[in-house]
Amino acid sequence: MAWNLSADKPIYSQLVEIIQIQITSGKYKAGDRLPSVRELAAEASVNPNTMQKALAELERNALIITQRTSGRIVTEDTELIRQTQANLADEYIKNFFRAMKELGYSAEDILLLVQKTVNEESVSSH
Amino acid sequence: MLKKLFKYEWKAFWKVPTAINVFLGIMTFIGIISLASPFWELDIRGIEIMLGLAVFFYILAIAAGSIGVTIAITARFYKNIYTDEGYLTNTLPVTARQIILSKLFVGVIWSFITGAAVSISVFSLIYTASLSYSDVNIFYEFWQDFPEFLRFFREEAKISFFLFAFLGLIYLILSTALSILKLYTAIALGQLFSRHKVAGAVMWYIGEYVVFEIITSFLRGIPSYSNGLFSFFFSYGISYYNSNSYSVLLSMLIAIGFCLAVCAGLYFLTEHMLKNRLNLD
Amino acid sequence: MEALAVMQGLTKVYGNTLAVNNLNLTIPRGKIIGLLGPNGSGKTTLIKMINGLLTPTAGSILINGMAPGPETKARIAYLPERTYLQSGMKVCDLVDYFEDFYADFDKNRAFSMLGALNIQPAAQLKTLSKGTKEKVQLILVMSRHADLFILDEPIAGVDPAARDYILNTIITNYDENASILLSTHLISDIENILDEVIFIRNGQVITHMPVDRIREEYGQSVDAYFRRVFAC
Questions:
Q1: How many angstroms separate the CA of residue B277 from the nearest CA in chain C?
Q2: Beta bridge partners of A71
Q3: pTM of the prediction?
Q4: What is the pLDDT of residues C59-98, one digit of tens each?
Q5: Domain limits of chain A?
Q6: What is the CATH number of domain A11-77?
Q7: Which residues of A touch C (CB under 8 A)?
């Protein structure tokens, strides 16, 4: 399956985000070897040059390390992975709050709604 | 690359002319069987008409076969270069020269095979007819008189019969190539029209025909009577033999040289069109 | 490294129509490039001139520094928008044909792709459907190790599964120094695999830029941007 990409944002920045999620969610664990650019590009159905650009960006952030012998691996710095996870979470929450405020809810209302959803989920999962 | 093109050209083309030649062979076989049993001695009413019809249809079949091969050669050139197939033919890493020559070689070979088949067919029918009708074995007689014929030919024509036959063969090959190149050139020039390119090719062919007739008539000095280069060649031989001012040998060499020059001219025109003026629809 | 192909002042006139009008274009190496434009904009005319099937009225085309000829044809793998197969052949005859003429042809790759799309090598071409014939042509073209692949409407006639396979093949097969020029009007299908797009209208290049720059600058997909630029 091709990765789910939205139409109005640059492709490479979306690829960066998807790979970050794959790492923080544990699809690729700390120290794991990543597939080649070509394999990843084929999996995502994107241009290999764009995938290359996304991986280069992740390397700049040190989340991915290129080793001369074994290709690209995920960093073993678990603190960095947690930090990435926290950054993503931060960004999602901010986006969520922005959207809810556009709908007309106050911060307190949003918190109550979130609490309600959490309660419902814990009931349905039992 | 020329060898590979030739190989695929042969593979793609052999079926139609082979079918035509097999058809000619079957016609000849039927003719021989009928002639070997002299049915005209039977007392059937209207036998003359039937015989006449049989000869008529035989001639028609031979003519249709020869024309069929020529049409197949022309159609192959057009289809493989100037229609959808041309998208592959013209993007192969080969030169225009290699494309034209590979097709020309195959075309000449098949024209020649068909010409030979027609000649053998006619000869074997005449041979069978003469054998069963008059008990004269013309082949045997000819063979008996062959040394005498050779001596006579040499004395009268001042040229060895074998040299004559050899030059005649070269002339025949060249004139076959010429007739095919006339068609190729007409098709290539037809591409100059932006629409109705096939009709354009027909117009060019008619134009070529007229020009050739005028030139050959002019060369022979007999404007009213002309049958193309072949008669040009023979009339030179005969008229100059009679007047004794030219030898048969010289007139043959002139005819070959002329034919070669025209072939070269038509070839370069076709090559130029394919190399520098190609415009596929 | 020099550019793969350079066109300067390229012009093609048909009768009274100006199909390509003083067009300047440089095709870099190692890129997948979309050639996009409405019908009649001059895409196919341009492609045919690069392949030497049409003679330009004016201007020049250089591929690897050479004008179109046998040397450039040996380095360009071209998929036209029509079927050029001779009906008397079998699929495997065609594989041999390509093997014989193109030094960069990879027979094993061709057979493995035929297998993946369930096309029998012994099948007679005339028994195949139009879509299957298109796939055979595409397989033959993509089995070459050419410098420049020119694909004219490669996905218009095939089913979605085959389309995905074709796009996947393009992504995995092409090597870093080769470029692919892909002409299509189905932009959204291929947008993610493109590096750059060339918009062409009335025989002239009106935009030539990277896909991600269009998305960054205009906040739109190439498809949406295309619709805006060519809005009637």
A1: 6
A2: A67
A3: 0.87
A4: 999 999 999 999 999 999 999 988 888 888 999 999 999 9
A5: 11-77, 79-124
A6: 1.10.10.10
A7: 2, 5, 7-12, 38, 41-42, 44-50
